[in-house]
Design a protein that fits this description.
9 strands, alpha+beta, two-stranded antiparallel sheet
């Protein structure tokens, strides 16, 4: 598997949240972390973003320890800094302070330069009936696709 093929998704995010605005951010990583990501050994389950001193951090992101890392290995669930422009950070911080809004990681990938990038979204939580509606729409699409297949 080439490192450009790495595409780690947070599938539950689109089910639980309605995305308002989407951004692409860089991630500050150590050497063993990027090696693990290139092997596809990362997970975005239950991750979220928060602000500390005007900087955006991602919490609870799991990157498995690198097999050949020895004593240089990283902690699997440490907080990692996200890199955005000042304008984007200011806009996100302002929106994040409103009740009901949060910042969630949607997808992590390796770009053509070999750098790890994360797509994050300013999101608003869906209500229970919104989730049921989304499931109904998925079922309808699947049913229509099945009809045209036969």
């Amino acid at each position: 598997m080439k490192s450009q093929d790495i595409n780690i998704k947070n599938k539950k995010a689109s089910f639980d949240y309605e995305f308002i605005d989407i951004y692409t951010a860089g991630i500050v990583l150590t050497g063993t972390e990027i090696k693990s990501i290139r092997l596809g050994k990362a997970s975005l389950v239950d991750t979220y973003c928060y602000f500390v001193n005007g900087e955006l951090w991602v919490k609870n992101m799991h990157i498995a320890e690198y097999f050949y890392g020895s004593y240089n290995n990283h902690a699997a669930r440490r907080d990692r800094k996200l890199l955005l422009t000042k304008k984007e950070l200011r806009k996100l911080k302002e929106a994040d302070q409103h009740p009901g809004y949060t910042i969630v990681p949607v997808r992590m990938f390796i770009n053509e330069k070999g750098l790890a990038k994360m797509i994050i979204a300013l999101a608003k939580g869906k209500k229970e009936y919104d989730k049921r509606q989304a499931l109904r729409e998925q079922d309808d699409k699947r049913e229509i696709a099945r009809m045209f297949k036969h």
